[in-house]
Amino acid sequence: MAELDRTRWIELLSRLGGRDPDLRQLAELQGAYSEAHRYYHNVTHLRGCLKLCDALREHFGQPDEAELALWYHDAVYRTRSDHNEADSADWARRFCESSGIGAEAGARVAELILNTAHGDQSLEGDAALVCDIDLAILGFPAAAYDDFEQRIRREYHWVEEDQFIEARLAILRGFLSRAQIYRSAALRPVLEDSARANLRRWVERWSQRAATAPPLRQAI
After folding, report:
1. Dihedral of CA 50/54/56/59: which sign?
2. 219 φ, ψ to 5°?
3. Helix axes 43-55, 63-72, angle to 10 degrees
4. Smallest Cα–Cα separation from 53: which of 72, 66, 44, 62?
5. Span 68-93, pLDDT tens digits
6. What is the pLDDT of residue 219?
7. Most buried in the list 54, 90, 141, 190, measured by CB within 10 Å?
8. pTM
């Protein structure tokens, strides 16, 4: 099982002014990201986000707060819930207040997490970068993106095939309809074109599956 980086966590809290390295909180995050139903939104995803955060650190206004937001952005992930971002943001806010990082920083971190619902296309600065990091998989090489789609389907294994395809197509087409998928100047030139190619390929693939999927059985 992949592990979160203990040293990284301690150093981040120290930079943010936390009273002590709260390893109990790290253990809770490890447990959350290791939940059995997480086939994509897991420790591997978080570690990938943090690696990108390192690569883009010079582009952030408040890099440590942005990093903490990434630590918590999928801390709560339930596939039957529509308020995971709000619950994750609340968890981060409460931790900042209880650990000595402070309420003001906690509010900023929480706002960054709320933005990872990806509904606001006009984000700038740190908010844009955090969201782009979360969406970076869309622009990864085809094999990585294909694996991502398969993992998302496994996370929603309880959804009937035709219903899942309908919902998934709406999401993918929604991204394709945007003037720009990536909001930051740091990632847009690198990932935009490949993301659109991946999305178009899977819109076609899901559409083909929809055409051949058996109709949903009706209860008698």
Report:
1. positive
2. -70, 140
3. 170
4. 66
5. 999 999 999 999 999 999 999 999 99
6. 37
7. 90
8. 0.93
